[in-house]
Amino acid sequence: MDSVSARIPTRSRRQAMEWSLVLISQGIGTTIDRDPEGGGWGLRVDPQDYAKALQTLRQYKVENRHWGWRQEIIRPGFLFDWTSLGWVLLVLGFYWVQGRTALEQAGVMDSTAVARGQWWRLFTAVWLHADVSHLASNATFGFVLLGLAMGQYGTGPALLAAYFAGAVGNLAGWIVASGPHRSLGASGMVMGSLGLLAVQSFPLWRKTPHARKFILTGLCGGVLLFVLLGLGPETDIVAHVGGFVGGLVLGGVMALLDKVLKRPGINLACGLIFLLLTVLPWWLAAANA
To answer: Do 6-63 and 70-287 show the same overall fold?
Structure first.
């Protein structure tokens, strides 16, 4: 390390760009550098920031190791989590069972039943679909939007938040309904994923003076996509709005807790809570069928 700058070697130009974004997000200025002799890529940082930079990168590697399902797309730092494919398979599995059993009757969001205390229907209805086209639409958009939300917030936190948003959508439908109301489908959860993505830029307000532009752009883009995807004819608009708003609120809170949510223990805990909120409601539905 010389008196002007300290050098951190990287495996490739792509890794140098990725690590540069990580350090810049923590207020550490960097310059991407290529060794004129060996041709290897690296980063130049101020000597007084060298120790902090190494610690930041060490923590970044700890938080992002052992999860090959999360991959960069489009640009460094923009992640897609292929674990959303597992959610799609789970939805398909429920539809297969639904066609062969009385699953729909036991789990559909029935306002009358919910009013009698069957709260679990707010969750079980997320896994049911009216027909193949309904299933295909939610599975397709859910795969993409949930995968992007997982890449941004972490697999467990995003999955749990989107699931809660779906339940909030069903709760909104129950509250607004003036008479008997039945609904089913994962569209509230899909809209919740869109809401999570719309507020993912919130942490930037602490890091850049241009944060307002990015935050407003994200919100406007999310709202426009919601209008396009969530306000179609013959759809449960109330559930869609409830899911989207639920995603916005939960995403806003999660965006401000981004460092906490990236801890492996938090990711695991959220995954276990999601599993519990999938199994328990269906167990109660079966017991009260």
So the answer is: no
CATH class for the region spanning 70-287: mainly alpha
Distance CA 21, CA 220 (A): 25
- Fold classification of 6-63 is Alpha-Beta Plaits (3.30.70)
pLDDT at 17: 85
CA of 178: how far to CAs of 111, 112, 173, 181, in Å? 10, 11, 10, 8
Average pLDDT over the chain, rounded to an integer: 86
| Window from 1-15, 164-178, 273-287 with minimum mean pLDDT | 1-15
Distance, in Å, from the CA atom of 240 to the CA atom of 232, rounded to the nearest integer, reads 10
Q: Which of 129, 137, 201, 240 is catalytic?
A: 240
| Residue of 20, 187, 193, 201 marked active site | 187
**C-alpha to C-alpha distance for 182 and 203, rounded to whole angstroms:** 38
> Is 84 assigned a catalytic role?
no
Is residue 183 annotated as part of the catalytic site, yes or no? no
pLDDT on residue 1:
43
Write down the domain spans for the chain: 6-63, 70-287
Question: pLDDT value at position 284?
Answer: 96
Q: How far apart are CA 8 and CA 42, in angstroms?
A: 5
